[in-house]
Amino acid sequence: MLILKCPGQLQFLEETLRKSLPATLPVLGTVMTVAQGNPAAHEVLVDSWPHFGVVLTRLRPEEQRDPGDFYTNQLTVYYRDEGAWRALLGGTEAVDWSRAFQMHGMQEGMYEATREAADAKGLRLETYRYQALLSPRPPQPRVPVPPGLRLAPVSPSHVPLLNATWSFGGNARSRQFLLGLVRALPSACLLGPRGRPVSWSLLDPLGSLSHGYTLPAWRGQGLSGVILGALGQGLHAHGFPIYCGVLPHNTPSQRAVRSVGFLPQPGTFYTLVVTPQ
Q1: How far apart are the C-alpha atoms of 81 and 92, rounded to whole Å?
Q2: From CA 235, how far away is CA 22, in angstroms rounded?
Q3: pLDDT of 179 higher than 80
Q4: Which of 22, 91, 166, 262 is most buried, by the most CB atoms less than 10 A from its CB?
Q5: Model pLDDT for residues 184-199, shown as the tens digit of each residue
Q6: The pTM is what?
């Protein structure tokens, strides 16, 4: 595998990936995050260049300090040749199976191949299937910032609240992961009169709007749309696709993002979490 570091190579890859949207969303978002400062310390690999069969992004190996931390150890994949993808899983060092990780992609074969490889190695694989939604323009909030609330970035001091309310959170690794996102990547929240967030969203290393949440007492007021609009403006200004993944059965979140301009995309947005048995 070749690591792409040259800005010209990353720009060419970005242009190529755009031609295959939405299947390339997680990879494209990560490639653009790497190209625009690489705040999450990821790297971009291809099996050949410039005619590639597989693109893989991953956390830099030197950043993988905790072998059990699948939160930070994120990979994305897009391939043109499924045989090349299966060969990569089985015959190279591109994917470190000795460490817990999460793999993201939007191709059915990606899931099948990863599951088979994990089964062959005796590893546990948890599968999460999301609906990808893409906003072709900056999201349009239905309401202005309500009186008494203030739009602001999420602060590191807010991380305990985010960790306690996140369905995948509640532990030290998730807290550290969220803290890293808040420190390195854009975020937005609405602060209540006492300076406590009542609604928020973060950008993750995949360039995806994620970890959105509104406290129960503040739901039904269109607050998430205000936050998505603020973050979407910044993403649009830097040329990023404005997208997110929502569980298909999460009807309130589906309704909220669609109401501000997000459109459902074909295919499944897979998150595969691989950990030792």
Answers
A1: 16
A2: 17
A3: yes
A4: 262
A5: 999 999 999 899 999 9
A6: 0.95
Q: 215-263 pLDDT, tens per residue?
A: 999 999 999 999 999 999 999 999 999 999 999 999 999 999 999 999 9
Question: Could you tell me the sign of the dihedral formed by the alpha carbons of 222, 128, 67, 84, in that order?
Answer: negative
239 near 108, Cβ under 8 Å? no
Query: Which residue's entry shows tokens 């490639």?
Result: 31
Nearest to 212 by CA among 238, 250, 180, 249: 250
Angle, vertex CA 196, rays to CA 192 and CA 201, nearest 5: 90
- Cα distance between residue 276 and residue 122, in whole Å: 8
Q: How far apart are CA 30 and CA 205, in angstroms?
A: 6
* CB of 40 closer than 8 Å to CB of 184: yes
